[in-house]
Specification:
The protein is built from 12 helices and 10 strands. Helix 5 crosses helix 8 and helix 5 crosses helix 9. It is α/β, with parallel strands linked by helices and 330 residues long. It has 2 domains: 216 residues, HUPs (Rossmann fold, 3-Layer(aba) Sandwich); 78 residues, Uridine Diphospho-n-acetylenolpyruvylglucosamine Reductase, domain 3 (2-Layer Sandwich), CATH 3.30.465.60. The strands form 2 sheets. It has a 6-stranded mixed beta sheet with strand order 3-2-1-4-6-5, with helices on both faces. Helices cover 51% and strands 13% of the residues. The radius of gyration is 22 Å and the shape is elongated.
Length: 330
Amino acid sequence: MSLPPAVAAVRRGVRAALADLEPGQTVIVACSGGADSLALLSAAVFEGHKEGLRVVGATVDHGLQPGSEEHARHVIGQMAELGADETVGVRVAVEGPGLGPEAAARQARYAVLDQVAERFGAPVVLLGHTRDDQAETVLLGLTRGSGGRSLAGMRRGFDRYRRPLLDVSRADTETACRVGGIAYWTDPHNADVAYTRARIRRRVMPLLEEDLGPGVAATLARTADQLREDMDFLDDLAEQAYVELLGEDRALRAEDLAGLAPALRRRVLRLAALAGGCPAAELFREHVLALDALVTDWRGQRWIDLPGHRRGVRREGRIVVEAAPGAAPG
């Protein structure tokens, strides 16, 4: 009897994500109880156990919805039933000054998943984002005018994290669950049009599919992949240039920066701002352009204000990102 195509698609993505692991190693699977993450966990158990891997299911309770604690207990039971070697449930406090609720929850989730991975000595954490999630991320980037980095969407892998399902549709994960007899949860936030992503999911994407024809999500995801290659290349060049140009005084010479192409120079300045203590979530294009003006449009500005109580200064021909007066040390 042939394997259902949806199940095969999920397993194929997971198999590729685990291919470089050695028998005996542990993989963490982040699981919310939705179709995407339950299909991911089921496939990880199937593929991982074939290769002698230990599979740990982890669910994070953000405490943002009524009954979240009971839901987390239910997910823990589901993960055990699906064959996870061990299960973990963690409740987190969602706090993120200057961040929206979604970004703060994401930050808290990654922080606790890092802790779980360290506890189990796991080199890999699997995330259940699908091709539809990727398409929605690209559209969000377009609506926010966020530039190439946002249009490139979610990375397939970073640090210890991997996204095996970026070539798999949300419909396929739901089908894989139904075929496997797995009851999945639908997050009410995904239907709450107060959230921009929910409006894109429920209103914009169906309209695009209706007016432009099926396959819009796949096309947007493919665009993200193409842009990601270019973005990664430019980011690698910028990191190399930053290391080469950084002086012993941890400053960058304006003359050296002026010789770089604008796209590269601004990436180098962004790296300098991050290294100087600016929070990534609060560092926007206008801040980088203001830093760039210290190089290309120097008119004697004393400094420019940056997020995180930092400022950019041009001093003796050098660009420095430093703590603003009165800022807390650190």
